[in-house]
Design brief:
globular; FGGY_Carb_Kinase; ATPase_NBD; FGGY_N; kinase activity; ATPase
Length: 543
Amino acid sequence: MKTTQESIKQAIAKGKTSLGIELGSTRIKALLIDENFETIASGSYEWENLLEDGFWTYNLLDIITGLQSAYREMKQEVERSYGITIRTVGSIGVSAMMHGYMAFDKTGELLVPFRTWRNATTSAAAKELTEHFQFNIPERWSIAHLYQAIINQEKHLPRIDYMTTLAGYIHWLLTGSKALGIGDASGMFPIDERTQNYSEGMMKQFNELISDKGYPWQLSDILPAVHTSGEQAGTLTAIGASILDQSKNLQPGIPFCPPEGDAGTGMVATNSVRKRTGNVSVGTSVFAMIVLDKKLLNVYPEIDLVTTPNGSPVAMVHANNCSSDLNAWLGLFREFSEAMGQKVESDKLFQVMLNKALEADPDGGGLLSYGYFSGENITGVESGRPLFVRSAKSNFNLANFMRTHLFTAFGALKIGMDLLVKEENVKIHSILAHGGLFKTPVVGQKMMAAAINTPVSVMDTAGEGGAWGMAILSSYMLNKSENESLEDFLDDKVFKEVTAQEIYPDELDVKGFEAFIKRYKKGLVIEKAAAEHHSEEREELLC
């Protein structure tokens, strides 16, 4: 049935809608969809992480302000477009950046500032736990943050009553339920595929490891309950409704699906939850999610083992740095353009500059860059410094400059993907990509296809992002048929008529990327030296 203005208005009035909220690294977004998975309205709030006392963080005030601002903007768009005020929603879901560390005491007080996935301060803990469990524990995972705090003998540890992720915190705030989706939970502590819960064996090992510390809690006491997609994980409380909607129009009692991480919503938004499918999400960080049909033979520090929102095992290759440095350079070019008296729209700037990469030498002309705003665990860099290097013999022009910065955005990712494909012989039928970089047609796909030597597709829905994927998970809980799997729901209902543009790797581009990655690996000593000898702090000049 064709969607009309009046039918959407009726859907809003009757609560036949689903709301997805996502707290990403640079933007908080609230997005409302109808029963046909079409976007009705959205709102957003721009924010940035802060480096405070050696930790990347967001403060609680910004978290709540951003949540409220995004919802308010979405609500106002509904009122302008459809002349109706939102009083109820069919279902709600919350998503956020995966991993990190949020620890609370019995009163709900946050014990230390939120430590995000971006922190590379837990290498000792991650290494020790990986050896102890014989299972890779990445630096970003919540358990690595907790154990590093134990190693550091931090004073807040005896007071911990609850530990969760950012998505879990917002869900708890709005519902009062200490719950987490299995995909996000798998970034807190290893999951047992058979039980669809935290690994009991590894949990016992961890408790034994810290038994001499005398803490008044065991790990199972402080972790959120694990839920799989399709389950209800709470309802909106009166307090939660007043927090989310400051106008007090939204009524309590709305069901919530399990909160998920941005990796899970990315898999849903690209229909990549079946085995042997995969997706790549590009933003401040970049990560590939490959749904496995067999166990990996070895343990790799470059590869996380997490799950889909419905509990299937996933190999995740996560690089902390991707587009931040590229965006910074494009900002510099914008400044130059404006200084010359030419105002350029952002979309036009990105299109022109990114397309220059298609005119470049296959390897980027011998240029080298590292977009490391923060440390990078895949390459063993503890503290990042954005860096651009060339020799006198490099072919230094705009096309090669742009290709080099696109290549380096995928450099650390390629190192991890090569382990999966070349060492573990993992078969990948398809890769779907999403993120702002792919709004410019062709060029981002070509560079990605060159990096992983696999066809890369971008769907018509690629620009919808994680908030839309979260709204889909919320809708699945509300509208699934009896015994309908998430895979079937996505195939048969959500993506049935969605088209995708596929680009195959170009042989010259692949060879060019292989030459670049050799240069990239060899030059890592330069990046490490830059971090060692160039301070992050600016010296104040005395006047």
